[in-house]
Amino acid sequence: MQIFRCMLIWVCLLISSAPFADDPMISKVLVLKSERKMQLLAGESVAREYRISLGDNPIGHKQQQGDERTPEGHYLIDFRNPQSRYHRSLHITYPNAVDKQNAKTRGVSPGGDIFIHGLPNGMGWMESAFVGRDWTDGCIAVTNAEIEEIWRLVKNGTPIEIRP
């Protein structure tokens, strides 16, 4: 019986992350911090657009651990975490080599653990308290329904550009 349950869970997870026939092929994620928008691009076309929340200190590029800024620049989505403290999360490859060197020069840690994620686990019912506010420690947050769609559409290795 236990094996059957495990297989059922595995099949459900596979189905929930499987692409739909009409899903666009996402070639890039574009974040426009000042507009609080994230766009999923299929070639040059905007396939999806989301309203986002950023770090508590959203203006400027992330300089060091604890500054609560969302980084700016060119990165990749390199892995996903279905067991995150937030409803699903996609990891952004911050810090890159330049970020690390700048932090080293300043004698600080660049920080890390920057993700696109949903709401804190168990808080989905309070969506209205989060949407339209900057509340993360430097991550990019969307609603739980939106992260489900992003999770399905954005593959590991997808470039992400974060603009001021």
Task: Describe this protein's structure.
The chain contains 4 helices and 8 strands, in the order αβββββαβαβαβ. With about 160 residues, the chain is of the alpha+beta class. It has a single domain, classed as L,D-transpeptidase catalytic domain-like. Strands 3-2-1-8-4-5-6-7 form an 8-stranded mixed β-sheet. Strand 2 and strand 3 form a beta hairpin.
In CATH, the topology is named L,D-transpeptidase catalytic domain-like
Query: Structurally, how many domains make up the residues?
Result: 1
Please give the share of residues in helix. 10-25%
Largest sheet: 8 strands, mixed
CATH architecture: Beta Barrel
Runs with pLDDT <50, length 5+?
6-16
> What is the CATH C-level name?
Mainly Beta
Look at the helices and sheets and give the structural class: alpha+beta
Helix count from the secondary structure assignment = 4
Distance between the termini: 53 Å
Signal peptide: 1-21
Active site: 117, 139
Protein name: L,D-transpeptidase-like protein
InterPro entries: LD_TPept_cat_dom, Transpep_catalytic_dom
